[in-house]
Amino acid sequence: MSIKPLIILPDPILRQVSKPVERVDSDLRKLADDMLETMYDAPGIGLAAIQIGEPRRLLVIDLAKEGEEPAPHVFINPEILESSDQRSVYEEGCLSIPDYYAEVERPAAVRVKYLDRDGKLQEMQAEGLMATCLQHEIDHLNGVLFIDHISKLKRDMVVRKFKKLAKDKAPGKMVG
Ligand code: NI
């Protein structure tokens, strides 16, 4: 297992639409393990493959709190089958948009089908934080970021800030 570098806003890779996984094999399981290790290291509670530059429909989630046993979930080719009319608001953040948080409103519950790490078809009825996290990560697979769900004014501000940060870090810049 290895920790991979995270793709950070405004890298256009984050806007790619990820391709379905065709085979659940040992390579894919290795990628899932690397994603989990990268997520635990960050630390975060969810990570989509595109966030380490792999445009495949794969995401990992672990909602265990500090001190609890790890509870890793691997979702391959996840699809939302149903969303509740009831909505809920969570303060969201993203490993690709470090140190920025904003309240996002989404359906409070979703039913999701996916393949597990053995390639077995599964369904999950998710609510609470799991529902929010699944929707946030599935958005990543479609090139959508949580800042797309906030006001344009706030979004433009965040994007500007990260563009400036990226520019300041760009190679070739003379720093005396
Ligand atoms: Ni994210």
TrEMBL record:
Tell me the InterPro entries matching this sequence: Peptide_deformylase, Peptide_deformylase_sf
Needed co-factor(s): Fe(2+)
What positions does UniProt annotate as the active site of this protein? E137
Which EC number(s) does UniProt give?
A: 3.5.1.88
SUPFAM superfamilies, per database record: Peptide deformylase
Q: Which residues cross the membrane?
A: none
Q: What does this protein do?
A: Removes the formyl group from the N-terminal Met of newly synthesized proteins. Requires at least a dipeptide for an efficient rate of reaction. N-terminal L-methionine is a prerequisite for activity but the enzyme has broad specificity at other positions.
> So what family is this one in?
Belongs to the polypeptide deformylase family.
Name this polypeptide is given:
Peptide deformylase
| Species for this entry | Rhizobium loti
